[in-house]
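Appendix B. Chain record.
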Amino acid sequence: GNDDVFGFRSSRSRETAYSRDYDELYDLLTYEKEHDGNIVWVLGPAVSFDKDARNAVASLIEKGYVQGLLAGNALATHDLEGAYLSTALGQDIYTQESMRNGHYNHLDLLNKVREYGSIPSFIEGEEIDNGIIHACVKNQVPYVLSSSIRDDGPLPEVIHSAYEAQDAMRQHTRKATTLICLATQLHTIAAGNMTPSFTIKDGVVRNVFIYSVDISEFVVNKLRDRGTLEVKTLVTNVQDFVVHIDQNLK
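Structure tokens predicted for this chain:
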């Protein structure tokens, strides 16, 4: 057997080869889509800061690879800022150029959405036609936005109570067949801790596949350290990750 074989790089790190992981994930997501799976994405705001990343996630939603989205105020705010003003935290989402007085942009966006009273009303009233949240609203993909004590605004749909937010998240984690968490340590741990290790689909017991993706080795290992032992970790830039996933799925 291989029990006593000495080997390098036994942990998953920035030096790990991830080609096979990507291929397995393409196959898994294709299977999920073809067999009525429930793919839940947990997104940090990093995917909203880049034009190609926003387009890739929106494309995955359009193509049916997203059945639920869990995030915080920041992801939705900066994604909608990108759709409304072409910036995220005041930087152009393509050129990274800082706009004059751009540090007010996300506040202007928050105030405008709150003026409309809801995200869907804002999208319709301002004729928003791009981005992650727009794709969710357009394709009726449910999203749960959970508040933080440090949020400014926040958006009208953001759930202020941690207990209510947990209940709303559990509605999606309990029926998830695959969970993919990108660049958000706290939301990843929260979602991972409330996701069962198995689910029953059409009377058949099957594993729930969990992925944690971050550029920090510390972050991806945090979920495993919290007891979610079945998680598969990838250390990479999440903007590159979502673009790769979108380009390799029909």
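Further analysis of this model is presented in Appendix C.
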